[in-house]
Amino acid sequence: MVHLHCLSPSFEPRVSDHMPQIFDMIKQILDNGYAYRVDGDVYFSVDKFPDYGRLSGRRLEDNRAGERVAVDSRKRNPADFALWKSAKEGEPFWESPWGPGRPGWHIECSAMSAAYLGYTFDIHGGGMDLVFPHHENEIAQSCAACKQSDVSYWMHNGFVTVDSEKMSKSLGNFFTIRQVIDLYHPLALRLFLMGTHYRSPINYSDVQLEGASERIFYIYQTLHDCENVLRGHDPASEDFIPPDILDAIKKFDNDFNASMSDDLHTSVVLASLSDPLKTINDMLHTRKGKKQTKRIEALAAMENIIRSILTILGLMPTSYAEVLQQLREKALTRAKLTEDDILRKIEERTTARKNKDYEKSDAIRKDLAAVGIALMDSPDGTSWKPAVPLALQEQQVAATPMP
Question: What is the mean pLDDT of the segment spanning 258-265?
Fold first, then answer.
C-alpha cells in the first residue's frame, strides 16, 4: 500500500478486540424489537424493517431461499440473517449474553464503524459484490440499533478482469499486486487503475500496463525537463504569467475540480493532463515555444498546477529523476536486458550508421523496440526510454474499434 502511495487508515480495528461493542449493538437491536433468539443464535428479522432492500433495489420476494446458504428452518423468514451464531465444534468462540459463539458476518462492520465514526458518517466503500446482502444487512442492523444511523455516500468499485475474463483462481488467471509490481512500477499501476472509473469493471492486461508505464514515464520526463530549465529561477507571481497560460491553468484546475466532484471521475482528469503537458513540451523543445514571452514564468506556473494535481491523485514522486530511473529499471527487467546491453546495442547501431549499414541500424532499433526499448536520436547522441513492445502495440491497434 505504501508503494502504491495509498494513505494509511486512521484505525485498523480487529473484530476480536471489539466484542463488547458487538454485544451492545446486538442488545440494542433485540431491545428495539428487530431481532429474535433461537437456541443460542440471534437473528435479525427483515420483516420488521420495511426499508430492507433500499440500497440494492431488491425486494424480499425476489430473494430465493437457499441460493447462497442452506435454509435454516428455525428462521421466521428465510432472508433473516445471523447477528450471533452459537459455537460449533472446532470453531473459535466467545462467551456472550446468548451463550458461547461468534458474531455473524455483518454485525462486526456496523459495530466497529459506529465505534470509530459514529452512527452517521459520510462514505462507505466496498466491492460491487457487497451491495447485497452484506451492505443491505449493515444498513438494516445499524438503523435497527439507532434510528439516526445514516451513510451519505455508498461507493462500490467494479471487478478486475484479465484479458476480458473474470479474475479467479479456478481460471488460473489470478495474481497479486506484489507480482505485478515486480515487473511494473507501482505508480504505473496506480495510473492504470485510475484510468478507469472506479465503479466500472477494469480489464487488466500486459498491453494496458505497458501503456500506463509509457504514459507515466512521459509525464515525469516532461516535468523533469521542466524542473531542469527552472532550476535557479524564482517562482513568478500571477501578474507575470502570460494571459493565455493563465487561462489554460484555470481551465485545467476547473476541469479537475468538476471531474473529481462528479463521483471521482479520475479517468477524465488523467485525459485532461495532455494539453498542459503538451504546452510544457512545446515551450521546452520547439523553436517557437522557446521564444515565448515570459517562458520561464509560464513553465513554472504550468509545472506547479500539474504537481499540485498529481499530489492530490497520489501520483507525485519524491523525485522525478529517481522515479524515471526506477521506470527504466522495470523496463529492463521486462526486456531481460541490462543497461550495458543497451549501451552496447547503441554503439553497434552508431557504428552501423557511420558505415551506412542502415539495414543493420534499423534491425537493432527494431529488436530493441520489440522488447519495449525505444531509441531516440538527437544532436547530443542516442538515448533510450521505455515503450510499449511492438507486438503489444500491434495488439493495441487491432483492439481499437474503427471510427
Answer: 96
Can you list the alpha helix ranges (DSSP code H) found in 184-338?
186-194, 206-230, 243-261, 266-272, 274-285, 287-290, 295-312, 320-335
Q: What is the pLDDT of residues 178-193, one digit of tens each?
A: 999 999 999 999 999 9
Cell of 91: 470453531
Q: How many contiguous H segments (helices) and E segments (strands) does the chain have?
A: 15, 11
Q: Cα 337 to the chain's mean position, in Å?
A: 30
- Residue 122, amino acid: D
Nearest to 197 by CA among 156, 161, 164: 156
The number of beta carbons lying within 10 Å of the beta carbon of residue 397 is: 8
What is the spatial distance between Cα 10 and Cα 115, in angstroms, rounded to a whole number? 13
Whole-structure pTM value: 0.90
Which position has the grid cell 471510427? 403
Interval 298-323 mean pLDDT: 96
Give the separation between CA 252 and CA 283, rounded to whole angstroms. 18
Residue with grid cell 461468534, as numbered in its chain: 102
Q: How far apart are CA 276 and CA 272, in angstroms?
A: 8
Whether the pLDDT of residue 66 is over 50: the answer is no
The torsion angles phi and psi of 231, rounded to 5 degrees, stand at: -55, 130
Residue from 315, 318, 284, 320 nearest 299 by CA: 284
Q: Smallest Cα–Cα separation from 235: which of 318, 303, 320, 310?
A: 303
Determine which of 107-116, 162-171, 342-351 has the lowest per-residue pLDDT on average: 162-171
Q: Is residue 245 pLDDT above 80, yes or no?
A: yes
3-state helix, strand, coil in the chain (%, to 5): 50, 15, 35
All 3 cell numbers of residue 345?
546495442
CA distances from 252 to 1, 272, 304, 384 (A): 29, 7, 12, 31
What secondary structure letter does DSSP report for 165? E
Q: Which three cell numbers stand for residue 115?
A: 465505534
- 37 backbone φψ class: left, alpha, beta (φ>0; ψ -120 to 50): beta
The rounded mean pLDDT for the chain is 93
